[in-house]
Structures are given as structure tokens and as C-alpha cells.
């Protein structure tokens, strides 16, 4: 019981709206002094000062305090003195709850992870009118770290299944490795960033993997033969998307919409979720986007920049924005990837004065 409560209360807190007699303030009264799954629930309790409202709160029950002290604080002292003991105990207890199934239930075979998987695909338009495609390819499994491996990105023009210029391939701009994953697995990631003109653009991409680097053992990763599609009718504009720290709007999101085709876009919008990490609330809103005005205008005729202002209270702190943009062409809605924040090509969280106010 002590372990279950401590493991459960290393995260979260008591909400004032639900338990006003315990949390007499506002928002959430946290159980410990970090937002991590760590042993601070124990170190705060043993070494002090504890901020757990269920140990020293205004309510008379002090349920955490009574449970933690029920064995003379022996368990909590062991958690406080060893983060590893706390982690292993929590893994065992939580694992027992997750792994317990009713008798008679037949479990299927374990899910086998995908060994090669692209992620973080993002198409952007720069202020200079260049299309930028970013994507990371993960190779996952036991003992996959191979510094001799050569992974190459290939892509096709928007009007073809091949590359008209004959030069549509690139090496990664960075490679990272992780060797300490659970279950004996490892991960090697290859990140690519390539440019094209708006006229050439992209229609799809795929990869070749040379395991020994000499061309003798090359395989193609092409999504089962169909390649990985690129939708260039909408794109992100990171240079013109950013957080706003004043007024009634918390962010400006700019989207590039393709306008050189026979069918023009309608219903260009941004769906945004603004999270408050203190009150643990989230507001979901859809904002219509309109053609941008200077300086938020497209430098190329193939695209029109659309801008949407995301409403929010800039006086609050610890706010994070997730959003995705969409546009409708001939009755079909095209949606971009789910992004976090703005101000960057990659997924960067907008953090509004998260230290204090």
C-alpha cells in the first residue's frame, strides 16, 4: 500500500476545484517539488520540507501521511535513500496491475515493433520561397547500431514518380544512436533536411539502406512499394509563426496554401489546443485563417500565406500550444501534421513565462 501510494503520488496533485477543503488555493497543489516520475515524493517527506497536501494539508485526514508512516517510515526511508529502489518498486507494483488479466483470457502474440519507420515529417516554405522537407528515419531493434550503414533519402517531383533533375537524393544532416533502451533494443536515427523549388516540389519520398556502405547489401524502404506521400497543397511557415506575449492572442500561425492549381482552397483553418500545465486544463478551438498581410505574405506565386491568431490569456503561465492546419480543395480536406508551438521548423513548445508571474 505504501509503495502504491508513493508511486502514484510522484506525479500530479490535488485540484482546488474538486477538493477545496484540502487545496484552499487555486489550481493544483502538487504532491512533490518536481513534475518528474522520481523519488522526490519520498525525499520531500523524509528530509523535508514536504509540500504534499495529503501529508500536511488543512484537512484532518492527512491520508498520505498516515499511510507513509504506517510502518514507522521504513519504506519511505528506503525510497528516499535510493532512487533506484523507488523506480524498481514502482515498476514491479505497476507492472503487476497492468499484467493482471482475468482467468480464461487468451493473450495474443507480442506486438513486434516496426524495424524501419520515418517520423517527424514536415513540409515548410521559407521566406525566400524555398520548399523544405524534413524527416527522420528510425532503425529499431536489437543491436542495430552500425556506423558503416549508409541511409539515403530519395524523392520524386510533384508531377512525377521520379526525379526530373536526376539529383533528388541526399545524405542525413545528423545521426543519433541510443543503446540503453529497454528490452535489449537499440535505436539509430537519421535526420534529413532537403530543399526544392516550388515548381519542382515533392510528391513522395523513400529510402535506401546500405548496411555495409559499399553497395553490396542495399535494401529499399518505400512503404511497401507505394513510397511515402508528400501533400504539398499545404505547408508550414515557421518563420512567420510565433508566440505573442501581449494582447488577447497568444500565438500567430501562418500556413502556406498552394494556389497555382485549377482548384482553389476553401475553409483554411487552424485547430489549436492550448494547455495550461498548472491548472491541468486544455482549450480546443478552431480558428479561420485569412490571407496574410505584409510582412506575412508569400514571395512566390505558387503559394498564398494564410494567418490565424490563436486566442488566449497571455497573463497566465506554463501554457503550451499544439496545433494543426487544414485546407479544403474540391471538397477534400487536407490536414498538416500535428505540431507543438511555433517559432521553429521543428516541434518547439510555446512557453509563456513559465517561471513565475
Describe the structure.
Strands 5, 6, 9, 10 and 11 form a five-stranded antiparallel beta sheet that branches. With 357 residues, the chain is mainly beta. It has helices at residues 2-8, 40-47, 53-56, 63-68, 74-81, 83-99; strands at 13-15, 28-30, 116-125, 131-141, 150-156, 169-170, 174-178, 186-196, 204-210, 218-221, 228-229, 234-236, 242-243, 249-258, 265-276, 281-288, 290-291, 303-311, 319-329, 332-335, 339-340. The model is unreliable at 342-357 (pLDDT under 50). The protein has three domains: 2-99, no CATH class; 116-229, Sandwich (Immunoglobulin-like); 234-340, Immunoglobulin-like (Sandwich). It starts with a helix and ends in a 17-residue tail after the last strand.
